[in-house]
Every structure is written in structure tokens, then in C-alpha cells.
Design a protein that fits this description.
The protein is α+β, with helices and mostly antiparallel strands and 495 residues long. 55% of the residues lie in helices and 8% in strands. The chain folds into two domains: 288 residues, no CATH class; 193 residues, Glutaredoxin. The protein has 17 helices and nine strands. Strands 1, 2, 3, 4, 5, 6, 7, 8 and 9 form a nine-stranded mixed beta sheet that branches.
């Protein structure tokens, strides 16, 4: 049967669907508002609890154009920002194929002459430097303007100001270690550009803009440039921003992993059969003496909390394997510089997957995992019954089944963790797996205590959980798409 033939189009005629929509609107709105206001704004995620400090040593491999980069570059064509300490710098994190970056460039170039004049009047050195932040783009590509006949709405023109290409180890920290400036200066280290910063004469960041079309215009940014060009550190002192590697976000990543575990655990692709399966295993406890006497069971049937733990460990095993694969993929994506476009694709996938869930379509993408589980599982009819191994295997199969509905949320999350490094992968997956383990134990114990009452309750709620989850996934995909493509719209709502 084809996917479209599985679709239940009558779902939109049922009152439960729209009740679920209302619940989803309230839940999604509350979560979104709380999340955004928690950080005050997306841009302010950049600001950390650390004290402001001068930017680290940053070395950029420049285009080395005569009279442009050659003025500030060394004999190797490299620009060392430390050598420019004492001058005002506008550092523009950009890319050839980043359309919003072109808007930033247009603004900078329209004001560069006035800023230079102000700098000369105050006896202050002044530089605008473009830092190529998508490392898949090479210097030759950055030095090539979009052909006039390309019919592109926002074509790339090689900047008039010094331009170069960064790298994942372009920044040299105080302890001698190296890191990626993109991790230091983009929102939460995600790599989302454009990002343009004003750096004062003492090397402190005094203004940062993360869009090519600020909702309040460029007035605040231009004012920061004018203040910095006075050359007086006291003028910019109160505006200095802190920066640091996004390691302090590991707690938040852990919490996100735990929140995601709720989505995975109550996946409509797997959860509907869980209460009945657990109840069946618990009911076998009444026959354990018979099974032991027949030699099919070597010990007593496991208790409800043991069953929950074993199933949870099975889920752990599955997601550890997923994490290993996703980490490798995340490393590749991080080096490609295409995280932003990948994120947009993921957002659109969320909408598609949520719609599929809403229409009752199942994909069974990982059905082969269930076949392996069935192969190695036993029943009380077999010569030897292995309930503990079965529950562990069931956990693996349950996790795989849940992925059919939640892949668009889980896999991107883990891949994203991979771009942040090993510590982030460990932190995020720990949150996900601990959350899954806790939920599996709690539900199993509740089923064991309440038996039929709990089972009936869970079965009644399954349909609503599926509908609410579907709507929220669609809303999350739409919201994420809007944020990634029109961040000013989101900022205007939560400003």
C-alpha cells in the first residue's frame, strides 16, 4: 500500500483533531515564549556569564590583493588581528553564498568612506575585515563575483575591504589551544551567519549584529562604530560583550536531551503497544512456577522496575549507535560550513513528518531492526524463555520504532551535537538516554501497580498524544523555518 493510500484525510473532520490543535497551540506557544524569553533574545545567547575580554589571536588567510589586503597582511598574505590592536575593527563573518551576508556587506560599504573620515579626524586606525566562515568555500571562490547573467536576486560581489578565509583553528586562545572563531562568535556556536562585530581599540567587542536586516535598522550598530572611532575606551567600556566557547551550554544541551526523550518515548509509532506488552510480561509472573518447573525459566520473572530498566538499557544501546553515526556526520557538516542550509532542510522535514503523522501514515524506515529483535527473542513456548534478554531487545526495537515518527527531531539534534564536539554529544545523549530510562521505569512500575486501570488510561490518551505531537512537530518546523530564513520576524514578536 502506498503512503498516500494510507492517509486518513477524514482526520480534519474530527473534533478531536482540532482539540489537539488547540492544546498544541497553547503548549507550543508557551514553550516557545518561555524558551525565547529565557535567553531574552536569540542574539543575547551570544552573551555569556564570562567577563568581557579582548578577542583572541585570529589569523586569516587573505585574498592578498595589492592595495587592499596587502596593506595589513604579512608576507604570507595572512592577516593577524592582534597586530591591529589599537585600531577599530569591524569583523564581518560572511560567505560567498550567504544572501543575508550580502546585505551586511552593502551596509558596510555604503558607510565605509564616512567611517574612515571619522577615524582620520580622531587619529584612529580603522579596518573592515571580511572573515570567510564557510570553509568549503576557498579563496578563489571568495575572489569571484557572481556573473551578471546569473539571474540571482542577491549576487555576490567581492568586498571592497580586506577579505580572507578562516579555519577551524584560526583562533589562538590564551592557553595556547586553537579553536574555530565561528564557534566563538556565532549564536550558541551554531555557525549561523551573518555576524558582524565592532571591536574597539583595546580589542573588546562592543556591538554585534546577527542579521542583514535588523528590525530596528542599523542605527544602534552605526552608533557603536562612531563611539569606537573616538578612540576613547571609556566611551565603549559599558558596551563591551563577553565571548567564550559554548561549553557553558552543556547543561542546556542536557536538558534539551531530556525534553526530547519525552517526544521519543511517547512516539505514536511505538507507544500504543507498550502498555499491553508490559502488562503481558508482568502477567507471566503468575506462571513463573510453572515455567520454572518445565525448565523454560531459570529464575523468577523480573519485577516491573527491572523490566523497565532492561528495556531502557536497550533504548540506550540503540541511541548510542545512532550517536556514533551522527557524530561522524556532524563533524563532516561542521567542516562543510553548510549547517544553516541543513537546518532549513530539517525544519521543512519536521513539517512533512508532522503532517504524515497527523494523517496516520507510517513509514517503517527501521523495520529491519524489529526483524533482528524478533530473531533473537524467545517466548514461553520456546524450549528456553529469556524474559530479561527479551526486554532488553524490546527496548532496542522500541527505540527504532519511535524513530519512524521522531527521526526529524532526534537525528538533527544528535548531528548538531556532533558539530559542537565530543563533550556536547556526551551531554546531550546523556540527557536523552537518562530521560528515556526514567520514563520507561516509571511507566512500567505504574502499569505494574495499576495494571488495567493504567493500561486503559494510557490507551485512551494515545490518540490525543499522537495528534498533539503531530501538530507540535508541524508548528516547530514552521517556526524554525521562519527563524532560519526571517529571523527579524521572530525578533519582532519576542522583542
Amino acid at each position: 500500500m502506498g503512503l498516500l493510500q494510507q492517509a486518513d484525510w477524514d482526520v480534519f473532520k474530527r473534533s478531536e483533531t482540532w482539540k489537539a490543535f488547540g492544546v498544541a497551540v497553547i503548549m507550543f506557544g508557551t514553550i516557545a515564549y518561555a524558551g525565547l524569553t529565557l535567553f531574552d533574545s536569540f542574539d543575547e545567547i551570544f552573551e555569556s556569564d564570562a567577563d568581557p575580554a579582548p578577542i583572541p589571536h585570529i589569523i586569516i588567510d587573505s585574498l592578498n590583493r595589492t592595495g587592499v589586503e596587502s596593506v595589513i597582511a604579512d608576507e604570507n598574505g595572512e592577516i593577524n588581528l592582534t597586530s591591529l590592536r589599537g585600531d577599530v575593527i569591524i569583523l564581518d563573518l560572511m560567505a560567498h553564498d550567504c544572501s543575508q551576508c550580502h546585505a551586511v556587506q552593502e551596509h558596510l560599504e555604503s558607510n565605509i568612506d564616512d567611517w574612515r573620515e571619522t577615524a582620520e579626524e580622531n587619529g584612529v586606525g580603522f579596518h573592515i575585515i571580511a572573515y570567510g566562515a564557510w570553509y568549503i568555500e576557498d579563496l578563489e571562490y571568495l575572489n569571484t563575483s557572481t556573473p551578471p547573467d546569473a539571474n540571482i536576486e542577491t549576487p555576490y560581489v567581492v568586498p571592497k575591504y580586506p577579505t580572507g578565509l578562516g579555519s577551524t583553528d584560526a583562533a589562538i586562545l590564551a592557553d595556547g589551544s586553537t579553536t574555530d572563531p565561528v564557534r566563538l562568535f556565532t549564536t550558541a556556536g551554531t555557525g549561523q551567519i551573518p555576524v558582524v562585530m565592532v571591536i574597539d581599540v583595546e580589542g573588546y567587542i562592543v556591538e554585534r549584529q546577527a542579521t542583514g536586516s535588523p528590525i530596528n535598522g542599523w542605527g544602534e550598530f552605526n552608533g557603536a562604530v562612531e563611539d569606537a572611532l573616538t578612540g576613547d575606551p571609556e566611551v565603549t567600556f559599558s558596551n563591551r560583550l563577553a565571548w567564550e566557547e559554548p561549553s557553558t551550554s552543556f547543561v542546556a544541551v542536557f536538558v534539551l536531551g531530556m525534553i526530547l526523550s519525552i517526544l521519543v518515548y511517547f512516539s505514536p509509532c511505538a507507544f500504543p503497544v507498550l502498555p499491553g506488552f508490559i502488562s503481558y510480561y508482568l502477567s507471566l509472573g503468575a506462571r513463573e512456577d510453572e515455567l520454572i518447573e518445565e525448565g523454560k525459566l531459570k529464575a523468577k520473572m523480573p519485577s516491573s522496575w527491572v523490566i523497565g530498566t532492561l528495556a531502557g538499557l536497550g533504548m540506550w544501546t540503540f541511541f548510542i549507535l545512532i550517536g556514533i553515526l551522527a557524530f561522524a556526520m556532524g563533524e563532516a557538516f561542521a567542516k562543510s560550513g553548510l549547517i544553516h542550509y541543513i537546518a532549513i532542510g530539517i525544519a521543512l522535514l519536521l513539517v512533512i513528518l508532522g503532517t504524515i503523522m497527523l494523517l496516520g501514515i507510517t513509514s517503517h524506515l527501521l523495520g529491519f531492526v524489529q526483524k533482528l529483535v524478533d530473531r533473537w527473542s524467545t517466548t514461553e513456548m520456546d524450549e528456553t524463555f529469556t524474559p530479561r534478554r527479551n526486554m532488553y531487545l524490546y527496548g532496542i526495537g522500541y527505540a527504532a520504532a519511535s524513530i519512524d515518527c521522531t527521526a526529524a527531531a532526534v537525528l538533527p539534534f544528535v548531528i548538531f551535537l556532533g558539530t559542537l564536539g565530543t563533550s556536547a554529544v556526551i551531554s546531550g545523549l546523556s540527557g536523552l538516554m537518562i530521560g528515556l530510562l526514567i520514563l520507561m521505569i516509571i511507566v512500567t512500575v505504574l502499569v505494574g501497580l495499576g495494571r488495567q486501570v493504567m493500561i486503559n488510561f494510557l490507551r485512551r490518551m494515545t490518540g490525543m498524544i499522537k495528534l498533539v505531537g503531530s501538530w507540535m512537530m508541524i508548528m516547530a518546523g514552521i517556526g524554525l523555518t521562519i527563524y532560519l530564513t526571517q529571523p527579524e520576524v521572530v525578533s519582532s514578536v519576542f522583542a
